[in-house]
Specification:
Structural class: mainly alpha
Distance between the termini: 39 Å
Radius of gyration: 14 Å
Shape: globular
Largest sheet: none
Helix content: 55-70%
Order of helices and strands: HHH
Length: about 80
């Protein structure tokens, strides 16, 4: 029998740690490393896209600007 393997990333909190005083590059590195981790954990593009959208919602909820998120996604896709 051929089955499918599903992954799910449990996000118990919709609020990300947001510490003032960190340089912007720290947030950029965090965002990039989180995207890389999602690629490693997700078994297909649809799962990755769903988790990426969840991550974007978490970022917006935590005070990250839409411009920051879009800029980091563009940099990641280069």
């Amino acid at each position: 029998y051929h089955g499918q393997f599903y992954t799910a990333i449990k996000s118990t909190s919709m609020i990300l740690p947001y510490v003032t005083g960190y340089p912007k590059v720290k947030y950029q590195k965090w965002f990039r490393s989180t995207l890389i981790r999602l690629i490693q954990l997700c078994t297909n593009y649809q799962d990755f896209t769903r988790q990426r959208i969840n991550m974007e919602i978490c970022c917006l909820t935590s005070g990250y600007s839409h411009e920051f998120i879009e800029n980091e996604l563009q940099n990641f896709n280069r």
